[in-house]
Amino acid sequence: MYSGVNMKQTMIKKTEDFVKEKLHGESSGHDWYHIYRVKNLSENIAEKEGADHFICVMAALLHDIADEKIAGSEEKGIQEVRQWLESISVEDHCITHILSIISTMSFKGGNQAEMSSIEGMVVQDADRLDAIGAIGIGRTFAYSGAKGQLMYDPEIPVREVMTKEQYRNEKSTAVNHFYEKLLKLKHGMNTSYAKKLADDRHAFLESFLEQFFGEWEGRK
Fold first, then answer.
1. Residues 4-19: pLDDT tens digits?
2. Apex CA 118: angle with CA 185 and CA 1, to 5°?
3. How far are the Cα atoms of 16, 25, 165 from residue 137, in angstroms, in the given order?
């Protein structure tokens, strides 16, 4: 069984290679570079908040392997993550913690449970930060294009309340996604440091929408 700092670094490096291979060519905004950014954000927030570095980094690296958008179903994805962690001899209590974070952190239309650990809060905040700001805008349009959704259609209303299934499957647009998810994320940040980071990114979303609708109506 692996133990110690060097062994944990080995596990992290192996997991990075595993995730890079799994998400190679993924074009919906859930590619390796999304994972890379979430990992880096998780490390930064974990340091500020005193969270366990190894748990945060491993959950950040593996969180989209278990996402139903990638795996086909959450159950299948969680099982694949478990098998991977077991294959590199991660300790059982760490596996349990990592899987708990991954299975709880997704937005799911605003219907997810609250995080129960500081490590979960850190990784969820990192993932949410990558969904807002300039990167978040780019990812939103990439995902909508991959799903065959329109950039914007004023005849398609913003959904105020929705189930997880409606959030995943009903017709929407890239711009509607700002109101259905992105603009809500600033207020859902868990940690003090992430809340500070979210301020500028949230303001950029608002600025973009002001410019977008001005151009849409031919005013700018």
1. 779 999 999 999 999 9
2. 125
3. 25, 20, 23
